[in-house]
Model the fold of this input.
Amino acid sequence: MQKPTFHETLERVVTRDERYSREAYGFLREALEFTQKRRRKSRASASTHVSPTELLNGFRDYSLRQFGPMGVTVLDHWGIRSTGDVGRMVFNLIEAGIFGRSEDDRLEDFENKFSFEEAFVIPFRPTRKRSTPRAPRKKKLTKQAS
Done:
């Protein structure tokens, strides 16, 4: 018997937990690959396991890179509204056998790591320039007819 493909397994995950779209899980997988690749480049660790904090930072950075100011809108459309949602998706994929897990990984490690407002909205708000107050304009003198 053949091992089910990612897409076949994902179909079961989405059927079991409808909060998150197929696209959300596909994006999470891409964000994990992005994080692993970045980690290999920096040679930060010989371990292949990515911690929850590393994954969330990679997820944030990959989202900003892929979607820019539309990131929070896209993620919301997919059902992802917090770092806790990312954790729940990770654990859904762990249960399905798609992602691996260390003994130390806990769902709580994904909760409230950063605000989506601070991560995906604030960086794109225009900054206000402080300008020096202008001197009042002088009124032009006009000659009156005598």
About this structure: The radius of gyration is 24 Å. The longest helix spans residues 22-42. Helices lie at 6-16, 22-42, 52-67, 71-78, 83-95, 116-121.
